[in-house]
Amino acid sequence: MDSSNKQFSHTIEKMLDSIHHNGYDVIENAIPEHLIKQLYQNCLTAPDKFNSAGIGRQQSLKQDARIRTDKTFWLDSKNQEQTNYLALMDKIRLTINRYFYLGLFDYESHFAKYEIGDFYKKHLDAFKGRSNRVFTTVCYLNTPSKGGELLIYSDSSNHIIEKVIPKAGTLVVFESERFPHEVMPADDVRYSIAGWFRKNNSVSGTIDPSS
Ligand code: OGA
Ligand code: MN
User: Fold this and answer.
1) What is the tens place of the pLDDT at every residue in 86-114?
2) Domains delineated in the chain
3) Is any atom of ligand 1 closer than 6 Å to the C-beta of 150?
4) Is the Cβ atom of 140 under 6 angstroms away from ligand 1?
5) What per-residue string of b and e applies to 127-162 under the rule 16 or more CB within 10 Å gives b?
6) Ligand 1 within 6 A of 112 CB?
7) Residue located nearest, by CA, to atom 1 of ligand 1
8) Residues in the chain with pLDDT < 50?
């Protein structure tokens, strides 16, 4: 095992402990700097790929600029850097499965771009019994000079338990059904990758597809 591999395993161990106790974790410098730089470049070199983000899934998918104004595009396993990122997330998935005796079977993720003024109002990423998203991940690809903070609210009351200042390399992980959260208006362009570990839910006898 090389040293960055070893370091990442250590990061995951600590993260699982935090998730076990608090349901979430915020880890600075979780992802190797060179990979963050490459993924950031992927965003800068493909500006046309970003599309207005949707709310909800499948038929109910609609764009609603009252709720969110960011633009997104899905990661592609044909791209080497994106594959490297997905491999790290898969390592987390397998470790979570072992640690919590879960059967998370897949990970879906997209790049997100918030330009100045873009926001994502308070929301949940999953609703009990209606979604198969179990854990949310957010990884920041740049360090905006101002704005775009992620506010995480407690599950039982309406107070803010965490204010995350986006910083390149920081990884946030939380239980998708449990924590309402919001992205404050960006004051500087903000790039991230949001992703979801999913379990295999059966919806009227068919497996819920990933998009
Ligand atoms: C999301 C989300 C948070 C962030 O994409 O669902 O809540 O900090 N993102 O970008
Ligand atoms: Mn969200």
Assistant:
1) 999 999 999 999 999 999 899 999 999 99
2) 3-56+66-198 (2.60.120.620)
3) yes
4) no
5) eeeebbbbbbbbbbbbebeebbbbebbeeeeeeeeb
6) yes
7) 194
8) 58-59, 204-206, 209-211
